[in-house]
Amino acid sequence: MDYQAVLEEIEKEIKPLLNEGKVASYIPALANVDDNKFAMSIMMFDGTSYNIGDTDFKFSIQSISKLFTFTLALNYYGKKLYDRVGHEPSGDPFNSLVQLEYENGIPRNPFINAGAIVTADTLVSIYKDNTFKTILNFIKEVCNDDSININEEIFQSELEHGFRNFALINMIRSYNNIHNKIDDVIQTYFKQCSIMMNTQQLSRAVLFLANHGINPLTNEEIISSSKAKRINSVMLTCGHYDASGDFAYKVGLPGKSGVGGGIVAVVPQKMAICVYSPKLNNYGNSLVGTKALELFTTKTNLSIF
Amino acid sequence: MDYQAVLEEIEKEIKPLLNEGKVASYIPALANVDDNKFAMSIMMFDGTSYNIGDTDFKFSIQSISKLFTFTLALNYYGKKLYDRVGHEPSGDPFNSLVQLEYENGIPRNPFINAGAIVTADTLVSIYKDNTFKTILNFIKEVCNDDSININEEIFQSELEHGFRNFALINMIRSYNNIHNKIDDVIQTYFKQCSIMMNTQQLSRAVLFLANHGINPLTNEEIISSSKAKRINSVMLTCGHYDASGDFAYKVGLPGKSGVGGGIVAVVPQKMAICVYSPKLNNYGNSLVGTKALELFTTKTNLSIF
Amino acid sequence: MDYQAVLEEIEKEIKPLLNEGKVASYIPALANVDDNKFAMSIMMFDGTSYNIGDTDFKFSIQSISKLFTFTLALNYYGKKLYDRVGHEPSGDPFNSLVQLEYENGIPRNPFINAGAIVTADTLVSIYKDNTFKTILNFIKEVCNDDSININEEIFQSELEHGFRNFALINMIRSYNNIHNKIDDVIQTYFKQCSIMMNTQQLSRAVLFLANHGINPLTNEEIISSSKAKRINSVMLTCGHYDASGDFAYKVGLPGKSGVGGGIVAVVPQKMAICVYSPKLNNYGNSLVGTKALELFTTKTNLSIF
Amino acid sequence: MDYQAVLEEIEKEIKPLLNEGKVASYIPALANVDDNKFAMSIMMFDGTSYNIGDTDFKFSIQSISKLFTFTLALNYYGKKLYDRVGHEPSGDPFNSLVQLEYENGIPRNPFINAGAIVTADTLVSIYKDNTFKTILNFIKEVCNDDSININEEIFQSELEHGFRNFALINMIRSYNNIHNKIDDVIQTYFKQCSIMMNTQQLSRAVLFLANHGINPLTNEEIISSSKAKRINSVMLTCGHYDASGDFAYKVGLPGKSGVGGGIVAVVPQKMAICVYSPKLNNYGNSLVGTKALELFTTKTNLSIF
Fold first, then answer.
1. Which ranges of the sequence are coiled-coil (chains A, B, C, D) (predicted)?
2. What is the pLDDT of residue C29?
3. Is it true that D3-62+196-298 and D63-193 share their CATH fold?
4. Tens digits of per-residue pLDDT, A190-235?
5. pLDDT tens-place string over residues B199-217
6. Can you give the pLDDT at residue A43?
7. Measuring CA to CA, which residue among A304, A207, A193, A188 is closest to residue A264?
8. Cα(D74)–Cα(D68) distance, rounded to whole angstroms?
């Protein structure tokens, strides 16, 4: 199939939507983004890639980082991780404290903020002071790119304005489900959100999830086959907050979005995709990004269903 | 692959679990079941089938019926159906009224009781007095078996003890999301739950969902390809109440369970499966049935992820 | 103190508010009311009464009836009643199902609909087919007026449109906290809501609550002193749904409102008051009635605080 | 009436209950208390006092401090205060985040932790760095006792273990209902909770609330008559978290409890009472203290109802 042609069709069809949605504004550093950008990259197992739009443009990966920390934590802890964070859809907005309260501080899944914070805490328990460095090195490794780093301004901005995340971590701590210093954990979490990547890098970085845990470009096993499948299933059921059902319904691929405007998606045993467009729909997911992926599976018939 | 051998292995491995779990007891007619039964059937596109256990034994399909009414309603209404019932996981026990209240009478998805009741109502709007007959005929057709019918005792029992379902329908009605007489709708719903089928029949009945909407045994298009995929996605994200994430995580197939002890699952583009064992886990899904399907995808590597 | 003069002042001061608020419209029979009416009656222990406005005009007492059924049930069951219905404020709109679900079918207090329905059920357990007759006779007795009766049109209207109440009773039944036939209980409840009384009658009917359980006009003990005080405390903390705190704050008297536009209030050891005006504030309480009572305690310094 | 004799009767009757309940243990400094203590003080308008038990023993006043900060804030802001904190019962455990989330960061009343934290914030807006000093001076003044101070160990303990309160303040801040630095506000709040007083001091300190805002011992107006009544009404409807209805029901007096084991209560136009016993019931209120006050109003007939 001529994927380049598919990307070109998609670029044309999403154009009228570029004015819709709203850039995330909860921190000033995110609000000041060029909001008409669009980029989409496909990475195949043999290293072939297809790109459209500004695929060199780096944006903060935000919640897409949860995919990498979940991988690290699941790899280390295996089933024990479920005692600390579940894998059920949350059925509530992404930063809801309600469910957490009714469920005694065990977040529903690693892709809501509460769950990602607990996941970060499990990593701090292993890697101590080197936790963020370990996360960053892991991303550099799966993406084979040493140049990746954080945006210090975004990190500081998250730190200054992240009141709901401070509320979450303190509440989870009150249920004894945070084992390290609150400041160490929350700084790790905010730093991972501030990592800057472009769609080319991200599509390469998640390729191992499409290939049963093995990076097809290096033949290195990143995670076991069965764990890779489980990560994909959590992406499908929980990857888009309270629009996860809708994403599965319309796109039909495991995916994970970030409030910075990026979405990664995985076609099992075939390829990885990343799309970027900063304006968000009502659920906090890239509006054009979601549409582009829906067009992609419609045109290619690559839905897993 | 030798699927018969796989089924035989599974039968051995699940044996120690046959004592675990509890038969549904909310109505007397369900509680009086032989609780050590196990049956599993696979149906291929060419008509080949593989069976183990008591695959002739008929049980009430209960919530599996929601799959057939959702198919009928989606086929007729298309996108308009979403104004009445959503397609997001509910993140709450299957009969919760809470979420319904916060979301103004629009059930989260067609597989929780509230959503299935609204779906039944949309069918009563079309088929009036013939609604249940239409549903039953549809099931007879997709399964090519005229002998299927309801168990009158179970139907009466549901009617007499279904207080939560009466609460649900009255509440939805108070939000004007029930358009027909409460008694007509609830009787339709209770009747569809009381339909008796065995695992052979059920595996044949859902085969069209594995084959993009076309019954491969008759080549008849039951529903469009894109709608069939969407039904599969809703099964994956919402098919097992508050254990949907766990089922996707462990089994990795679209599936739908019923409190009668049956579970159907679909391997897209390959086959349909039905498993039966009446004892339920804490989430109201067949305990042994869930395990059997997990063993199946582990052994066959047929997870969609 | 010249209470007649106080009433006259109040009538003047509330005039500009008579256009505000909205008549209850959930049933047609209530919506068709003359919405500029105002009436207020005071009844003293020696039989003296003070009246202003259309104090002969009869309106449906609605939730004020809960006061009489709670009195009957508490008199019969004593502390045992608390196993079936609590006495804590609900902190939620008056017909909320949420709290009921989290608290396993035990309504928070006898003045929210769920609690009044359970109270009605406890009376049906005692008085069987004569339950409504017993309630009506009790009201006739405390008010010394044989002419009181229900409005059949309002009763039928409640029956036809009371979907939320049907939802409530079915849900409570599912927790086994309804012991009689749903139809018998709900009809009793709807009938008690449809009783027609004017402000003179209602002020006389609740006088025993101001006088430690003894009707001062007849010297008859209706209920023990300690129970009378407890009924007053429940009126104060729970009498106005989710505006109970505000009513206590502004008026400072135990009171109970009905969606028909009436409010009764009790000045312990002094008098009983009833005010009527059919337009409701956002909390479902008579807007002008609440204001009139606030003016009353400000002018007379009769707040219990 | 011989109040000393009443206190002596009460002391005898509560003795068998001194073993019931549990001392607060959420911070170590509270857990290490002598848990069999009992003390009760009555203060009359003419300065006469009645005492029983160890009425010189100082305990941390904890949530009773909310009464004093609410007085200060209501005095300064008047009705404007309601934009920031309501006056409705919460119907939920005292530190619930759920209700806060559904109500956009406006706490239900000044006596739940969230509401007291917002109240502290409104005081920091006025008194800046002198806020805690102003609160402490106010308490010294109404109690005419310069020796009152905080327990530094309890303060530090609250600071180190108050994760839920940190969660609350961050969440409220995310709704922009905290206007000052989080650290300044929370330290003020934890300090006010750590103030040490005995039952004699506390009964004197709340006497102005029994006397329509005027300290009868000094004739000084602390707050207006109408505001004093309103504070009493909030005590009655909200003073005991989710047992406020029960306290009103059984005791029938405006009161405010603290997790340190103290309860103050007010008999309007007559006296103020303070009781202390550190073991708490399931609702976090002094078990023996609640019973002692119930016995008091039963014996003296001083319930406001």
1. none
2. 82
3. yes
4. 999 999 999 999 999 999 999 999 999 999 999 999 999 999 999 9
5. 999 999 999 999 999 999 9
6. 98
7. A207
8. 10
Catalytic, B241? Answer: yes
Question: Would you list which residues of D are annotated within the binding site?
Answer: 63, 113, 158, 165, 189, 241, 259
Return the partners of chain B (3 or more C-beta pairs < 8 Å): A, C
Tell if the CB–CB gap between C252 and D229 is shorter than 8 Å.
yes
B18 — contact with chain C (CB < 8 Å)? Answer: no
List the single residue in A90, A230, A244 with the smallest CB-CB distance to B249: A230
What residue in A sits closest to D174 (Cα-Cα)? A163
B249 noted as active-site residue? no
Residue C268 has its nearest CB partner, among D89, D99, D304, at D304
Pair of tokens at residue C241: 């749904």
- Comparing CB atoms, the residue among A163, A164, A171 nearest residue D164 is A171
Tell whether A170 lies on the interface with D, counting CB pairs under 8 A: yes
| Minimal CA separation from D263 to chain C, in Å | 18
Could you tell me if B107 and B100 are in contact, meaning their C-beta atoms sit under 8 angstroms apart?
yes
Domain range summary for chain D, segments of one domain joined by +: 3-62+196-298, 63-193
Q: What is the pLDDT of residues D91-146, one digit of tens each?
A: 766 557 777 877 889 999 999 999 999 999 999 999 999 999 999 999 999 999 99
Q: Which residues, at least 6 apart from C233, have a Cβ–Cβ distance to it below 8 Å?
A: C87, C254, D245, D248, D249, D252, D303, D305
The CATH fold assigned to D3-62+196-298 is Beta-lactamase (3.40.710)
CB D104 within 8 A of CB D175: yes
Identify the closest residue of chain B to A303 by CA–CA distance. B229
Which residues of A are catalytic, by number? Answer: 63, 66, 189, 241, 259
Among the listed residues D50, D241, D264, D286, the single catalytic one is D241
Q: Could C108 and D90 be called an inter-chain contact, meaning their C-beta atoms sit closer than 8 Å?
A: no
Pairwise CB contact (< 8 Å): D234 & C244: no
- Say if the Cβ atoms of B248 and A242 lie within 8 Å: no
Q: Tens of pLDDT along A1-60?
A: 899 999 999 999 999 999 999 999 888 888 888 888 999 999 999 999 999 999 999 999
Kindly report the nearest CA distance between residue B14 and chain A, in angstroms.
20
Put simply, whether D177 touches A (Cβ < 8 Å) is no
B97 touches chain C (CB under 8 A): yes
Given a cut of 80, whether residue A283 has pLDDT beyond it is yes
Those residues of chain B that have pLDDT short of 70 are 91-95
Q: What is the CATH code of the structural domain delimited by B3-62+195-299?
A: 3.40.710.10
Question: Which CATH fold topology does D63-193 show?
Answer: Beta-lactamase (3.40.710)
Mean pLDDT across chain D = 95
pLDDT surpasses 60 at A84: yes
Q: Is pLDDT above 80 for C20?
A: yes
Query: Hey, are the CB atoms on B242 and A90 less than 8 Å from each other?
Result: no
pLDDT band at residue D30 using 50, 70 and 90 as cut-offs: confident
Question: Catalytic residues of C, which ones?
Answer: 63, 66, 189, 241, 259
Q: Output the CATH code of domain C3-300.
A: 3.40.710.10
> What is the CATH topology of the domain spanning B64-193?
Beta-lactamase (3.40.710)
Longest dimension (CA), chain D: 54
Q: Would you list the DSSP string of B228-260?
A: HHHHHHHHHHHTTGGGHHHHHHHT-S-EEE-TT
